[in-house]
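Record type: ASSEMBLY
Status: queued
Input:
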Amino acid sequence: MKRNQKGRVAAISAGHNLQNRLMSMGIYKGSQITKLTHFALRGPVTIKVGRSVLALGHGMAGKVMLEVE
Amino acid sequence: MIKKIFLIGNPNVGKSVVFSRLTGVQVIASNYPGTTVEVIKGYLKLGEQRLELIDLPGAYSLQPSSKAEEAAVSLLQQYNKEESIVINIIDATNLERNLYLTLQLIEEGYRVIVCLNMCDDAGHRGIDIDVQQLERFLGAPVVSTCAVTGHGIKLLVERIMQARAVLRAGVTHQERWRKIGEIIEAVQHLQHRHHTFREILEDLSVRPFTAIIMAVAVIFLSFNLVRFIAESLINKVMDPLFINFYRPILDSFSLGLGEKGFMHHLLIGDLINGGIDFKQSLGLLTTAPYVEFAMVLPYVVAFYFVLGILEDVGFLPRLAIVLDNFFHRLGLHGFAIIPVFLGFGCNVPGILSTRILESKRERFIASTLISIGVPCVALQAMIFALLGRISGFYIAGVYLVLLAIWLILGAILNRSLKGYSPEFLIEIPPYRFPPLLLLFKKLFLRIKVFLFEAVPIVLLGVLLVNIFLYFKLFDFFSAVLSPLIKGVLGLPKEAVIALAIGFIRKDVAAGLLIPLGLNPKQLFIACVLLAVSFPCIATFVVLFKELGLRDLIKATLIMIATGLIVGALLNIGIVG
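Status: finished
Output:
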């Protein structure tokens, strides 16, 4: 996904705990996300959800499947 | 009958500021999620009633995901819903995400009053919220406030008793988010604004290239600013005060005591070249106050001033993104930078704030690394004073050795401990520029805590050392340990005293090294050892509380091993 590209969450392939954590921060199936940046060497990914900017680890970001609009 | 009032809300919405406003109790507030990791209590007067007000660590939902969140949720659930009122603080600039917890609280049947905080900032960002409309949707009172200026707090207090439980059926998460969507649609109106300078900076600080440049520049500037402020305070204020005003008083006092004897030994210490030497006399009235007030305090002031700015502006979470990769190699994630930064001030709050990390494994690694590889500001001040006289390279050397310890020890711990460390998921707060007054209040609070905690222990430490020295009680220890100290570490046997006192307070311990007349190599090794070995007793206590006895022993053994190995390596490796 490229910088500033928008997408909708299609699926989250993660355990119950992580699903809940992501959910409470606004990342759930159907929510809209804008990708901001990613850091090299499997570094974190920054995204925008609603009005908040979140940073998540590379592996965690990989579990969130998006449908690019 | 209402017994308790809880403050609850997402991380970094300003709960602690509201708490200070409501109770008059000063607490540390910063601009990053997870400032408050402990439950803090205070009292609020409502007419004739005096109610207990409890500030909980931030939580995104009622399903906790870190130790701090767990503490918040479990405490809330201990009390009867009928007897408590929940003040739910929400960030007006981020209504959508904040409402998730609000709806959960209402569904659970709590008596909720909503405090819509940071209204001024929402205004700046072109966000307009219809408070009355929101109140109708939620069925709970909503008050808009700006806690840093105090706006709206009075109204909040007046309306606390209007909080009522609303009957509402629990729904699934998806349905809750849909509901929030409807509310947002109806109550929030956005005006289009051009990007402000602040937003451009925020944008740049999450782009890899500019983020790294900004991080390096900010750390470099901060380090130099701390040194500049501290050295100015020492040279322009504290030294002149001690030498021109305090010394003449002590001189006549010393004459009055006859310049010798037990009391003179305790209070004034030894006369160096016939006069009082603040750095070497080692008396309760001479070296003890000089070390604390003229050598350490200026650095404490300077460090917390700069840390306060970094915290409040919201720089630390951005540093966390840049350093995430580095910390991964140590079994931690980027957010561990927050405990580390606090640890550079004092290890105790640093280790407490490891509660923002999710797993026990991470907390063990972070606490161990902090207590071994992060010298507190008091010790750093002494290292600057001791090694700075020789050469700046030695100071840099100490930090490089500590960094190497971090890398090697962290990698070993990461490989050898069971389990794996979760990845990070944090919210990056917007840059904020809080009023200077608040910055100084926080600084003042931290200095007060430092003085109350440090000064009695420093006096006690110096007193003990003096009694031991007078009755020559250390001779036994130093004789027993001298093969180790001399043979392995290359230090004179008297250094045992300093290393032992390091258990009580590190700055006093470093002060004890001055009269020994060590050569640069020995001084360097001693400084590194003080940084690595035995954290002071306060750190021990907090390690015990946070990790439990087994892990404390584990951490202590790692510490001793690291100290001996590093000391021996340096002794062999450096040609004196």
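Annotation: The mean pLDDT of chain B is 88.
Annotation: Chain B has two domains: 4-190, 211-573.
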